[in-house]
Amino acid sequence: MPLNLPQKQFNIKKSGDGRLRIFDRLRRKFVALTPEEWVRQNFVAFLIDNRGFPAGLMANEVSLTQNGISRRCDTLVSDRNGRPFVIVEYKAPTVAVTQNVFDQIVRYNMVFQARYLIVSNGLTHYCCSIDYTTGSYTFLEEIPPYCDL
Length: 149
Known about the structure:
Elements: E1 12-14, E2 20-24, E3 29-32, H1 35-51, E4 58-66, E5 69-78, E6 84-90, H2 99-112, E7 116-120, E8 125-131, E9 136-140
Parallel strand pairs: 6-7
Antiparallel strand pairs: 1-2, 2-3, 4-5, 5-6, 7-8, 8-9
């Protein structure tokens, strides 16, 4: 499915059960190719190739515990000191980016305390900056290059 992201080439193969799998460059393994995973792989490629995000500071499917419940953050980007810096939440292109999606990433951020939050369904992307001193947030017009964050 075409996304609102630059087109990239991916390593896709069929597994023994006939399901498609895509190579995740951050996890360094093939994973099931779901609609959400298609968005994740395209968005990660966009961040690395078009926004200069260092792949070595990025991780997919990062575990966290919130109120005793295990959850997983879609993508976590660290700053150069290894602290959480950007959280990205993906949805399939058929899933609207609603308040519930923002509520989900905000809950994750209660654990990580990242400076930036990004939500994308591959068609629509939102990025906001959190100011912890004022308790406010600002939506950015576009996703800035890593060096400008």
